[in-house]
Amino acid sequence: MRSTFHNLEIGKRGVVAQQTAISTTGQNITNANTPGYSRQVAKMEAARPIEFPGLTKSTNPNQLGMGVEVTSINRVRDFLLDIEYRNQASDLSTWKMKQETLGNIEGIINEPSEDSISTTISEFWNAWQQLSKNPSATDLSARTVVQQKALALTETFNHMATQLDTLGNNLTERVNVKISEANNYITQASELTQMIRRIEGLGDNANDLRDQRDLIVDKLAELGNVQVSETTDNDYQIVFGGVVVVDNMDSTPFTLANAAGLTQGEIRGYIDSRDVHVAEYTKQLNIMADTLANGKVKVTLPAGTIIPNGVIIPNAVMSANNPQMLDQSVEYEVNGLNGLHKLGYTLKNPVQTGGDFFVTSDGSTTITAANIRVNQNILDDAANIAASMRTEKINVNGTPTERVLQGNGDLALLIAGLAERKFSFDPLNNKGAITDEATFGGYMQSVVAQLGSESDHATKMVENGTLLADHAENLRQSVSSVSLDEEMANLIKFQQAYSASARLITTVDEMLDKLINSTGVVGR
């Protein structure tokens, strides 16, 4: 015969199970806005029945159910969606860093603007044009303008180079900070893994700790490519940038030496920004500065030009009366503005040819955007700026003397004309120039166009990456996030089940009262 008390146990188990489910629902509701929280579900199963088949089985048919039990409280999580989200978040972070850096470089190059290279070089050419019209030896105003415009041009190069160098240093510092941040996450993940293994070793589910660890892995994924693996035996690994940084309870710090294994994330974005983008536009500025000073460019030397001693002009037809004077104009390739300036004559007496117009500030042989400067002789005295290409012989106290032909501005005109001449920016194809031959202004436009194209591409990649990352996160949240509507419905469902289980206990109590207090009492 079945025991009436058996039903009390069933009712009690129902009350306990529904109470646990209500507590789980309350946990979900209160954590609806907690970052990284995963919805939890109380897993209910029918309790193990009594009267299992065996030698001691009674003659009563069937088994007797023992009600319900909550066997576990589980997180609702799709690990494949975690992987997808982390990959998208990591890729998005890479492009965000590149977009930021390219935007900074655009601000440094600052084209078009009053302080840009295009503006200052245009003003520099115009100053030479004005000097060609007023090369007077008694009025140095036009030469002074050339001097000051040249100084402004070199300072523009210097300032941009300094800003790019500072940007590169800042990116290096950010890499170090982000690696330190990654190591902090790695340590936290290792500590949480220790606690999880300890708790779950006792048979419990460390749901909240697992949520915390997954949130840390999400943050780690923003810094670099990360892979997580976990076996059924709770062996847990985090691989960051190709390095096993968490292996169960052991952690290994990530170092800059391992950065080559990073293919995505903020750290990779900063490294690429520094080593690719900042380096590229520093190189382009260096190419422009060096080409302006020493790049090969063809000019047409006018007839009547007095060729300085030691200079050989191929295919030149010289005057029969003066072996140093061109009888006809001739095309000649010079080494930039420096080479052309050396073909002219200053206002100094005795006659002096122009020296290097641009030199380096550090004494090195290669001109860069960082070290280009105007020759100190020119800064000290504008009369050292060569504008003429002709000299004349005069008698001074009966002594034949050579002097600069007054009013001649042929050299200044040739230099002004360099604005329309094509320079050879990379004759050996070993500098990494955008194009080999171009006018100086045209090359600058190519640099700006390339920068704009790269910046636009980065912006589009950020926009696309944001959509993909948001989509992956929405899919993940559709599985793991708390729906208050659903939880309120569950709350009512579990409340009703709790009330029904309590009613079962009350009913059994009434039955027992009837049985104990009324059965066998006759006549009462």
Write a structural description:
It is built from eleven helices and 14 strands. The protein has 524 residues and is an alpha+beta fold. Among the domains are: 4-76 and 482-520, no CATH class; 113-174 and 294-427, no CATH class. The longest helix is centred in the N-terminal third of the chain and has 60 residues, at 141-200. The protein is rod-shaped, with a radius of gyration of 42 Å.
Secondary structure: elements and pairs:
Blueprint: H1 5-30, E1 40-46, E2 68-75, H2 79-109, H3 117-133, H4 141-200, H5 207-223, E3 226-230, E4 236-240, E5 243-247, E6 250-251, H6 265-294, E7 296-301, E8 330-335, H7 336-341, E9 358-360, E10 372-374, H8 376-380, E11 391-396, E12 399-404, H9 410-417, E13 422-424, E14 437-439, H10 440-480, H11 484-518
Antiparallel strand pairs: 1-2, 3-4, 4-5, 5-6, 7-8, 7-13, 9-10, 11-12, 13-14
Helix pairs in contact: 1-11, 2-4, 2-5, 2-6, 2-10, 3-4, 3-9, 4-5, 4-6, 6-10
Pick out its properties:
single chain, 524 residues, alpha+beta, four-stranded antiparallel sheet, 11 helices, 14 strands, 53% helix, 13% strand
Please provide a brief summary of the model.
This protein is an alpha+beta fold and 524 residues long.
